[in-house]
Amino acid sequence: MAYGFNVKKVTNDIVEWIREWFAANGAGCSAVIGISGGKDSSVTAALCVAALGRERVVGVMMPNGVQPDIDYSKMLIEHLGIRSVTVNIKEAYDALAGEVTEGVGELSRQTVINMAPRIRMTALYAVSQSMNGRVANTCNLSEDWVGYSTRWGDSVGDFSPLAKLTVHEVIEVGRELGLPGYIVEKAPSDGLTGLTDEDNLGFTYETLDRYIRTGVCIPEEKKALIDRKHELNLFKLSMMPAFPYEPEEE
């Protein structure tokens, strides 16, 4: 389901865009990518390899203790032949959770969900700055559309190759790049509840992607839910608002 989507052209254009961005913003630097084992980080890594060469791409695995599907990350790193770093965030996560709990009481469910992505982004920038890197954001348009990301966690980065592509378009780019099917077709999940992204969202990516690209929502009853999520989460895509003060002329 890729409406008027020329995957070969788009893939080549993204590769060239990454090259141009690094030439202007980090000549000689490496692309540093948090590798989750899912399609978005895998496709981003593959695009960076195509643009910069495998020697300038670093994959960072960041399990929170034991990560059941970390083998997907390892297989992707081996497939691409890139350097890798493993940073287990469990001790940092537990320490922060303990300190905050002591101060405020029980952590809210959203706190538990969002703390790990924010710690991972801190780790990712620590690796990047220590290795002369630039951090890749791996979010796609579908997730951004409904706010399915953590503000100041996986929603940030230095450059974003996939931000204008829907989930199904990302999958097509992954296939074009020759990534294994078990990676690009793996059902995305939050890694916390055992549920898939689609279970958590309440609609399928097929429904969402069609609505984004055509304005047609099938089934129609999902339209209100998608619209509500989109409106509630627009702030995640905006810069922090600043008071518009201007000194008065004397």
Say which CATH homologous superfamily is assigned: HUPs
| Distinct helical segment count | 11
The CATH architecture designation is 3-Layer(aba) Sandwich
Biggest sheet statistics: 4 strands, parallel
- Helix vs. strand class: alpha/beta
CATH topology: Rossmann fold
Distance between the termini: 61 Å
Uncertain segments of ≥5 residues (pLDDT<50)? none
Strand order of the largest sheet: 3-2-1-4
Average of the residue pLDDT scores: 93
Number of domains: 1
Radius of gyration: 19 Å
Oligomer: single chain
Into which percentage range does the β-strand content fall? Answer: 5-15%
> Which descriptor suits the 3D outline?
globular
Highest CATH level, the class: Alpha Beta
Strand element count: 4
Describe the overall structure:
The chain is an alpha/beta fold. It has helices spanning 7-25, 39-52, 70-80, 90-104, 109-130, 141-145, 167-176, 181-184, 197-201, 205-214, 223-232; strands at residues 30-34, 57-61, 83-86, 133-135. It has a four-stranded parallel beta sheet with strand order 3-2-1-4, with helices on both faces. The protein is globular, with a radius of gyration of 19 Å.
